Amino acid sequence: MKDKRWIALIVLCAGMLMIVLDQTIVNVALPAIQEDLGFTQAGLAWVINAYLIAFGGLLLLAGRLGDLIGRKRIFLIGLTTFTLASLLCGAAGSPEMLIFARFLQGVGGAMSTAVILGMIVTMFPKPAEQARAIGVFSFVAAAGASIGLLAGGLLTQALSWNWIFLVNLPIGIAALVFAVRLLENDRGVGLRQGADVLGALLVTSSLMLGVYTIVKAEHYGWVSAHTLGLGAVSIALLVGFLVRQVKAANPLLPLRIFKSRNVSGANVVQILMIAGMFGMFFLGTLYMQYVLGYDALQIGLAFLPVAVAIGGLSVGLSARLIERFGPRPVLLTGLTLILIGLVLFTQVPVDGDYLTDMFPSMLLMGVGLGVSFPTLMGLAMSGATEQDAGLASGLVNTTAQVGGALGLAVLATLSTGRTATLIGEGVAQNSALTSGFTLAFGIGAVLVLIAIVLAATVIKPVAAQAETADEPERELAYATE
């Protein structure tokens, strides 16, 4: 049984890797896609946005549906949808077809991703095993983004942009075959326990509209009528959803999940951490491309230390550190290393040298992420009962997605504004670009600093958890193992 569970974990991680790779692999191929399909500059952004809106909007609903009708069923449906949508993307002959297929990819990605953590915590109920399993998952989730940049460059240069999507077909088919055989069937608690149709409509509409508003804020401006108006509608829908959850007999999102300070705190800390880091990955890529003149392959190799450090720590060492010192000290250490890495990255010059100006930052951030991701995911899942595991999984993935979208939109907007102002003042383009990027890196560091403060004040240490009788039993076990 034990061997089967670990093999099943590999299957889940293979599905996750395919989805995570797709989120970054596309960025490298955007120029080739634009040239081949005739995208306008504004239209090209929808290759990314169509995916983000569907993915971010459906995660919470998909996670809850996994609890109600079975997480294996939702995972298989999502994996099938994602694989078929990848085929449509690779065969797309027009901008409209590619955007539609990317939306479908987002739907399939949300359904698969939302339930994976829930399946992991139910397969590995013992805290020590669970920490190691979440470490493996964290490695795939975090390192996959860096690997995607490298793979995107290789596939686009060696073959064509179509293959960044078509490569998903053999992975998806193999994952489906093994998932059917290895994953245990779970019936779920039944739709009657949470078939809140109105709540589902409210939260999905709110999240989709919220993600759309964030990703378009760079174009319209943060204080424009478009951004403020749609943002207000999104917030109003979210408030309506929360009111509905308080009154509904069978709520889609039982608010009891937020009673745990560690669960709530971990999700908020994750939003801030990913907001700071996501901007660094995206804008760091632009710095290397437009200022230093790196090609797609060189950029992928530049981020390789991050992937290697995450891999070396997530798979085994982070779990042992958590068992030895508890989650809060490990998380604070990881966030501090990320903060130092971002602060160093604010010092990159126009003529930056990789080994002296970027490699130390990459290594520090890789180590920090390698211990922070598994710890945050373990904390975010620590208060989940078996009936709510899919919901908690969907929630932690939703906060990650919102953090990434918000961080990218805010940091990219501020960076672009700073660069435009300097160019208008007569500053050389490369100097203006570098100044804009370093400003964004500095703001990312501030977000991580706020995350450190929250982690230190909101997340409970082991001793405090042990004394609190009304905390969820799983959280107590996770903290005191």
Characteristics of this structure?
mainly alpha; 481 residues
**Shape, principal axes of CA atoms:** globular
Give a short account of the largest sheet. none
Rg result: 21 Å
* N→C terminal distance: 23 Å
- Please identify the top-level CATH class of the largest domain: Mainly Alpha
What is the string of helix and strand elements?
HHHHHHHHHHHHHHHHHH
- CATH-defined superfamily of the largest domain: MFS general substrate transporter like domains
Number of strands: 0
Low-confidence stretches: 462-481
- Would you tell me the structural class of the helices and strands? mainly alpha
How would you portray this structure in words?
With 481 residues, the protein is mostly helical. The chain has two domains: 2-195 and 250-480, MFS general substrate transporter like domains (Growth Hormone, Chain: A, Up-down Bundle); 196-249. The chain contains 18 helices and no strands. It has helices at 2-37, 41-69, 71-90, 95-123, 127-158, 163-166, 168-182, 197-220, 225-247, 261-291, 296-302, 304-325, 327-345, 354-381, 389-424, 429-457, 462-467, 473-480. Helix 8 runs parallel beside helix 15.
What is the fold's blueprint, element by element?
Layout: H1 2-37, H2 41-69, H3 71-90, H4 95-123, H5 127-158, H6 163-166, H7 168-182, H8 197-220, H9 225-247, H10 261-291, H11 296-302, H12 304-325, H13 327-345, H14 354-381, H15 389-424, H16 429-457, H17 462-467, H18 473-480
